[in-house]
Amino acid sequence: MKTPATTNKTLEVSASVREAIARLQMQYVHAIDNDEIERWPQFFTENCLYRIISRRDYDEGRPIGVWYCDSRAMLDDRVSSLRGVNVYEPHCYRHVIGPTEITGHKDGRWQTQTSYIIVRTMHDGEMILFSAGRYLDAIQIEGGTARFASRSVVTDSWRYDTLIVIPL
Amino acid sequence: MSQAVATRPLKELVTWPAEGYTRVPFNVFSDPEVYAWEQDLIFRGPAWSFLGLDCEISAAGDYITTMVGDTPVIVVRRADGGINALVNRCVHKGSIICFEPKGKRDRRHNFVCPYHNWIYDFDGNLTSIAFEKGIQGKGGMPGDFDKSRHKLTRLRVETIRGLVFGTFSEATAPLQEYLGPEMVEHIERTLYGKLRILGRYSQLMHNNWKLYVENSRDNYHPSLLHAFFTTFKLNRLSAEGGTRQDARNWHHITFTKRFTDQGDQAYDSGMIRAMKEDYGLQDPTLIDQWIEYPDNITNSIESIMPGFVLHQILNSLGTRQVITRGPEKCELVWTLLGFEEDSEEKTRIRVKHGNLVGPGGLVSMEDGEIGHFVQRGIKGDLDGMAIIEMGGRDVGSMPTRATETSVRGFWKAYREMMNV
Ligand code: FES
Ligand SMILES: [Fe+2]
Questions:
Q1: Do B28 and B34 meet the contact criterion of CB atoms below 8 Å apart?
Q2: A166 occurs within a structural domain
Q3: How far apart are the CA of B234 and the nearest CA of chain A, in angstroms?
């Protein structure tokens, strides 16, 4: 269950598919970083899976990470919780993502992996490197719009600072 | 082995207020000398500390590394099936010997220090020194150096229901006696199957370790600080709550019980499907659950002195191990558990209830920061003290959540161990 298969050299990916996937990756991080979290669930299909799991647990094949949402409605619940329920100090993220590698195509979905780092800035100005890792995605394209059927955020570290209320 | 040798006597460092355990002097949360004493008197003192799980070291030669307070420890499975715990510190120059989270020594049952290859058996005996006799007659250790006089410090080890505990002190009572019958019964009730690790992560907290341990015993705060349960009407799930303690008031269980009559629909499989109209959740499958225990307790936090917690939040089961990281930081290692016997459906429910706990826990993520709030708040007034009088001025079990009796119990245990 380690890394997805390395790029299949014969995998044909049209420019429009590449563009749709790249647009999704960019819009996802900008929605979060620009505090438009309400848009975040829209990047997923209705029966999506979104989870945050440490690299060690992922490699060991363990099922539980720090987040596990198996529907878009659960993502909406996460959004209402962070907006109106949970108590936390104001902070924001800055994502930097690497180029997306398309690793396969299965059941109508594109398998991809993308590296990321997230810097967290607190309201008092304190900044830390909050998370680094990779997104392992299965992306579905319909009518030119790409959505995550599944997104596993595999964090390189298994230690999390304080709390994770904003999605990675 | 002592960390506090260079510090002043505790009596000079801590003056406990005359009110007793209804007051806590703020300086115990930040004073580095108090911290040093705690390492000696608590973590290396007469207390059982959680070391890990039996199932992590199932075969002879399997080992894991962990911490007891500031002290690095190796936990290893012996050839005869027993478990040894050794201080992970070479007697030569003090290097840690095992530097991976887990490993296996199956060809030879020994540990080799990476620095100069001194070798220890699983009982901690120093069995070999590289170049002990020198090279071609030159160098080597003095002829009268006696290897048998140098060994790794060994902890006493006991297990209960797959949980491995260790203690440095000969004075610690046997584990079952240390825990007391109430705590033993609750551990045995909670961990009724063969343990399986479903996930593990750690949460870094910017507060003294005691602020977290206090929090784990504070059943006054949850409905006030953690709004998730009330906002989404999940408090409908629970009726009575309370707290139980052992005879010495060192350890605590806080719990809530389920209402026996409520609108949810129970299915043949025993699963209880949450109804959307009843809760504010878009996807109420988050809290689909089954009543796992005949006592109808749906949430319980069992907190064992000094730094171990066993939780049941709906069907999420897990252990939490507090690791000290200096006076103003600590780490909480969460291990989420299921049983080998669980059906796929039950595992799926446990996975979803994982959303309620940990640093991303919808219900309790605030616990990761609240200690930091206190740590920052008290900074300006180390002469001050906390007030702990909710539910009276005494310790002992109480059939209510509007009490801090278990927090007082923690300070009672602390004062007894520290003799302050
Ligand atoms: S420090 Fe271990 S052999 Fe030298
Ligand atoms: Fe809490």
A1: yes
A2: no
A3: 13
Domain-embedded: residue A4: no
Residue list, ligand 1 pocket, CB within 6 Å: B 90, 92-93, 95, 113, 115-116, 118
What total number of domains does chain A contain? 1
Chain A residue closest in CA terms to B350: A64
Mutate to test the interface with B, among A38, A49, A64 (most CBs of B within 10 A): A64
Rg (CA), chain B: 23
Q: Among B87, B90, B99, B128, which residue has the most ligand 1 atoms within 8 Å of its CB, making it the best to mutate?
A: B90
- Give the model's pLDDT for residue B259: 67
Residues B73, B31: contact at Cβ < 8 Å? no
Could you report the predicted ipTM of this complex, rounded to two decimals?
A: 0.94
Q: Specify the ligand 1 atom closest to the Cα of B97.
A: 2
pTM here is 0.95
Reported as a pLDDT band with limits 50, 70 and 90, residue B275 is low
Q: Give domain status of residue A120, yes or no.
A: yes
Terminal Cα distance for chain B, rounded: 21
Return left, alpha or beta for B8; rule: phi > 0 is left, psi -120 to 50 is alpha, else beta.
beta
**B351-406: pLDDT as tens digits:** 999 999 999 999 889 999 999 999 999 998 888 999 999 999 999 998 887 899 99
Residue A140 CA to residue A148 CA, distance in Å, equals 6
Top-level class of domain B181-418: alpha beta
- Can you tell me whether residue A99 is helix, strand or coil? coil
Tell me, what CATH number does A87's domain have?
3.10.450.50
Q: How close does chain B come to A128, measured CA to CA in Å?
A: 13
Domain around A135: 15-155
Instruction: Report the residue from A57, A78, A87 with minimal CB separation from B199.
Output: A57
**Has residue A96 been placed in a domain?**
yes
> What sign has the CA pseudo-torsion B342, B345, B348, B349?
negative
Q: What is the pLDDT of residues B166-223, one digit of tens each?
A: 999 999 999 999 999 999 999 999 999 999 999 999 999 999 999 999 999 998 888 8
CATH domain B49-158 topology: Rieske Iron-sulfur Protein (2.102.10)
B28 Cβ neighbours under 8 A, 6+ residues apart? B14, B34, B208, B210
Segments making up each domain of chain B, as ranges: 49-158, 181-418
Task: Show the low-confidence residues of chain A (pLDDT under 50).
Answer: 1
Closest CB to B362 among A70, A81, A89:
A81
Q: Tell me the nearest-neighbour CA distance from A11 into chain B, angstroms.
A: 34
CA B140 to centroid of ligand 1, rounded, Å: 14
